[in-house]
Model the fold of this input.
Amino acid sequence: MENKKLLLKLRYVTPARHCETLCLLTLLVKELVIWQRVVADCHFSFMNNISYESNCVYIMSSINNKVLYLGVTGNILRRVNEHRQGSGSSFTSKFKVYKLVYFEFVGDTMSALNREKQIKAGSRAEKEKLIQSINPGWIDLAEDWY
Done:
């Protein structure tokens, strides 16, 4: 709610209030950075409480988020590391898809494969919405893993 008030104030800025505008923009940027860190911290604490050898569906993206790669693995740590070293798949090596932006743990292998098919069947917009649901800033969720 506070952000909406700040944004409404920014609409009616006059040159005389330029300094105030810069202060408001600075506050918005700081709040966004804090929000991204909170999301990353939640994922980090979650990751510390699960088994890395669980079946997982994941989405990786290129640095500019233009290219997405969807996969299934039984060990998310190993698989992300393989992608980053260029041995994950020829697609990820070719398009430099190294940033983990989404993952979810699924029960057994068949459930993971079915979930992968379900996500792959969706449009790009649906995949982006799924990513935004847990990672609104599209930050690298595996940045602190290695």
